[in-house]
Amino acid sequence: MHYFSKVKNRILKIISLLFAINLVLAISWLTYVNNHFTQKAAPFADATIILMGNFNSTYTALGNKTLRRLNHALQLYKQGFTATFLCVGGSRPDKGVYGAELMKQYLISQGVATSAILIEKNSFDTQTNWKNAKQVIANQKWKSVQVISTALHLYRLKGIIEQYPSPLNITYLPISLSQPNPAASYFELWFNVHYDWAAHLSYLLPQATYSWLIKVIRSQN
């Protein structure tokens, strides 16, 4: 019994050490990514792009991650930094729902005019978010945009955008970590960091493999 007790204690110590290392790395990454964005809202942008975050567990409403981005965008709207919104992403045809449409409905419920909201509802991941958003930007002949999401998401998006330089003036506006609306738990922040790590790793896959995998996870049928 004494032997098994010693083994158990060693295992617990190893698990505790690994968790502590993981926690330090997660906090360090989150801090680094947030410090990467020091821009403030532009005096005025042609449009504010809001990237889809999540749905609730039953895909009947927007999740808190998305609501935080929308509420951040509404603050800019009320302060006169933008007059037009482009809601992007959340295509889940297998669930019978499109996130961009729900985002538009939320903005309207908060007093934004329908005419001030455009949607791009067919994208389903960060790569297709920007690919499809670029087409809307070109069609609208916008010269400047502000992009709203979490810092983790924006950091990945910025990497994708910088692969194809353009004269478009882009301001990245991450939602607040200190006062998000709705509030975020520490566990949610920890989970989001690990989700972000997984997303970065997925980009290392061959493009064909990545495209197949993301469509398996987020079926577009």
TrEMBL record:
UniProt keywords (A-Z) are:
Membrane, Transmembrane, Transmembrane helix
Q: Where is the DUF218 domain?
A: 49-179
- Is Transit peptide there in the keyword field? no
Record Pfam families: DUF218 (PF02698)
Positions of transmembrane segments: 12-32
Matching entries from InterPro entries are given as: Cell_Envelope_Assoc, DUF218, Rossmann-like_a/b/a_fold
GO terms for cellular component = plasma membrane
PANTHER family from the xrefs?
A: DUF218 DOMAIN-CONTAINING PROTEIN (PTHR30336:SF20), INNER MEMBRANE PROTEIN, PROBABLE PERMEASE (PTHR30336)
User: What name does this protein carry?
Assistant: YdcF family protein
Q: Which organism is it from?
A: Spartinivicinus marinus
The lineage, from the top, is:
Bacteria, Pseudomonadati, Pseudomonadota, Gammaproteobacteria, Oceanospirillales
